[in-house]
Amino acid sequence: MRISLVMPSFNQGRFIARALASVLDTADAADQVIVLDNLSTDGTSDVLAGLTARHPDRLTVLRAADGGQAEALNRGFARVTGDLVGWLNADDVLADGALARMRALFDARPGLALAHGQARWIDAAGRDLGAYPVLPDGQKYDFHEGCFVCQPTVLLRRAALQALGPLDEALETAMDLDLWLRAWARYPGKIGFVPEVQALQRLHGGAKTERLRALVFVESMQVLHRHGLGVPERWPLSYAEEVAAGTAPADGWPAVRAAYGAAAGPEALVALDARIAADSAFAALHSHPSSSSRAR
Asked: b/e per residue, 121-140, with b = 16+ CB within 10 A?
């Protein structure tokens, strides 16, 4: 069973060799890897040139300006030829044996449309940061509490990906959540799970989910609302807690607050504001204009 992987890349030269080694230099290597490099300027092209010379039959590098990660991925997906398709960001890593386990699962269960697995977080140096909170038997409604699918662990049958349609290129951080919601709605009972660690997802300051922290929350709440799922108060409160911990910027709060209000409604927004105002832990948000009655 042939596997194709697409890898969007922009200035991840310090990580991309390890990412590609995890899918090309293993006994269960991918059959096709397409790297979409957004004109990186950090030496990525030199790394890719060396790897292409080593794997000319399996690695293709397309170097061009892109319209965002989703647009690059859609261009890559249009070129894949494998039976199973996935994507691996240039700073993440597949675990040893991950693709072999996926091949075995899809061979054993020909009715599966897609599958995912266990995962762990690592830091820039590769140190373990703990387990990703996956749900082996999660249903569509479970996404309202948070994304329980670790993106680099996912493989889809190519026919299923084509049926689901392209990634939403208007989304910068939540295009995968939108795809999972479409998949869980279209393929109930046809989603598999590998109960072993399939991928290591890297958390570091240059990662988009860290740099664009407020946008992650805003887009996620918008996507949940689009798919008819409720958005509980824990979403904006989680962002407020990150601000209090110093891991998210306070100036992102107005956008997060507004997105929650649009998804949950005015009464929920009033209750959120009251909770924020009453808790001294959220002092960084108390004086912000969006938290005052004048802003409403």
From this structure: ebeeeeeeeeebebeeebeb
